[in-house]
Specification:
The protein is an alpha+beta fold. It is built from 13 helices and 16 strands. The longest helix has 34 residues. It is an enzyme of class 3 (hydrolase).
Length: 469
């Protein structure tokens, strides 16, 4: 079975720099390289009868699906794994974040065995059928109640106004909360939702969830409901695999934060000391505890400290997306899917418009085998070379990323102005052309960087013997 462990960051519209809603996630795998691709699913290509590859679970789907973008696995041997996208109604979804559970809830509503739905399925079964973030929560809730799940999942939904984060509980239950407009969230691979108000319209859950908590005496707190305490974990693994990632992000946005990397009770809803940009999220998704003793590439820590905590930027990043719904442009331009393939420490993210019917070949036609015409495989090659000597190659990568993202911003600004008055097929053609331009410049800059790394690394090979004559 495919291994998937991720990091999620959510930013409300009043917390973001430009008033956008932002939901982001790195799709991280295991030891096996999992090639990813970027595609548009047209209504005529969406199945009407769906069958999961991993479990064989079968679902009849509604008619009249919406067009949507997706980031599926290139080979498909584990199923679709559409991961994330934005549909034609400018509703975004990312799924899923693998999270934790505990024996108490598993004894009441156990995860399914060889049945039900999982990360492979949720985007395909949800995103084409929703017209708001809130509808996304309700759609997944219905699927969980009817079909169940074999794994613990966190997922996020957004539209131009709202962001919702949902976590599955046991085999058939769930809880979700709306992210306040002025707040942000970082969610590593643990159960994340903490304070929960069953009476507020900003919270939703399975109809019987509150009764289950009472009937089975699951609440350890004297007052209120903290779902992480009730349904989540507080393990030794959390203290080195999950909690440090949340700590690093929270300290980045508030250096005066009093939490530590080991804290089990780091808050779910957090407020930054400034407005949050897409560039902030890109940095954090590539981060490896810079300027701390825990940076594997740094010179502050001991060998043990450098290996102590799991970073966000890691060799197992296979694709990362930032789904942006903008509020300062016409609806036809509002959806932007920032996308980067491979380890984030060595890539550049591209802001693709999502009101399109096709994607650039270098991002679409990845293939399951190494292919130098694919940006995914180029980035994998570059990251594995860069990892051999980060001090030597790190500045080259930083310059490449700034150059590439700046050029993409220029294309985006020009296109926003050019396309404001366009509609329908003319608008889609304009946005498709802009996407191609950004993909081409990113590909060219990546090849250029790879060449510079080869040239710079030539004199630093260990297999050498200097001529003295």
């Amino acid at each position: 079975m495919k291994v998937a462990e991720c990091t999620t960051i959510l930013v409300g519209k009043k917390a973001s720099l430009d008033g956008s809603t932002l939901i982001a996630r790195s799709e991280d795998g295991g030891r096996e390289i999992l090639p990813e691709s970027f595609k548009v699913v047209l209504p005529e290509d969406q199945p009407r009868h769906y069958k999961s590859v991993l479990t064989g679970c079968e679902v009849e789907l509604p008619g009249e699906p919406l067009r949507y973008t997706s980031v599926p696995d290139a080979h498909g041997k584990y199923g679709v794994w559409a991961a994330a996208g934005i549909n034609e109604e400018n509703v975004a979804m990312t799924a899923t974040e693998t999270i934790t559970t505990n024996a108490r809830i598993q004894g009441i509503d156990p995860l399914l065995v060889d049945d039900g739905l999982g990360e492979e399925d949720f985007v395909t079964l949800t995103l084409p059928y929703i017209h708001s973030a809130r509808e996304g929560v309700l759609r997944v809730g219905e699927l969980l109640a009817k079909y169940g799940t074999y794994e613990m999942n966190g997922m996020a939904f957004s539209d131009k106004d709202e962001i919702w984060y949902l976590e599955t509980i046991g085999g058939h239950h769930w809880a979700a909360r709306r992210i306040p407009d002025d707040a942000y969230v970082v969610a590593p691979n643990r159960f994340n939702i903490d304070e929960f108000d069953f009476e507020s319209p900003d919270f939703m859950a399975s109809a019987d969830l509150q009764a289950i908590i009472a009937d089975y005496k699951l609440n350890p707190d004297f007052e209120g409901y903290n779902l992480r305490h009730i349904f989540g974990s507080a393990t030794v693994k959390d203290t080195h695999y999950n909690n440090p990632r949340a700590w690093y992000v929270q300290h980045y946005f508030d250096p005066n934060s009093q939490t530590t990397p080991l804290d089990q009770d780091q808050p779910f809803i957090v407020h930054a000391d400034r407005k949050i940009s897409v560039d902030d999220i890109m940095f954090l998704m590539a981060s490896h505890y810079q300027n701390t003793p825990y940076d594997v590439y740094g010179d502050q820590g001991t060998s043990a400290e450098k290996k102590r905590f799991r970073p966000i930027g890691i060799n197992r990043n296979f694709e990362t997306h930032i789904l942006q719904i903008r509020n300062d442009v016409p609806a036809g331009l509002a959806g932007v899917q920032w996308l980067g393939f491979g380890p984030n420490t060595f890539n550049a993210m591209v802001p693709f418009y999502t009101n399109i019917v096709d994607t650039p070949a270098s991002f679409r036609d990845t293939g399951s085998k190494f292919n130098l015409q694919s940006i995914f495989w180029l980035n994998k090659l570059m990251s594995q070379l860069g990892d051999t000597n980060f001090k030597l190659y790190g500045e080259l990568e930083s310059a490449f990323e700034q150059k590439t993202v700046a050029a993409c911003y220029q294309v985006q600004h020009q296109t926003d102005k050019l396309a404001r008055e366009l509609q329908g097929a003319q608008l889609q053609a304009c946005l498709t052309k802009a996407n191609q331009e950004m993909a081409d410049l990113t590909f060219a800059n990546t090849v250029e960087l790879l060449g510079k790394m080869v040239e710079e690394g030539h004199a630093h090979m260990q297999l050498k013997y200097d001529l003295l004559d």
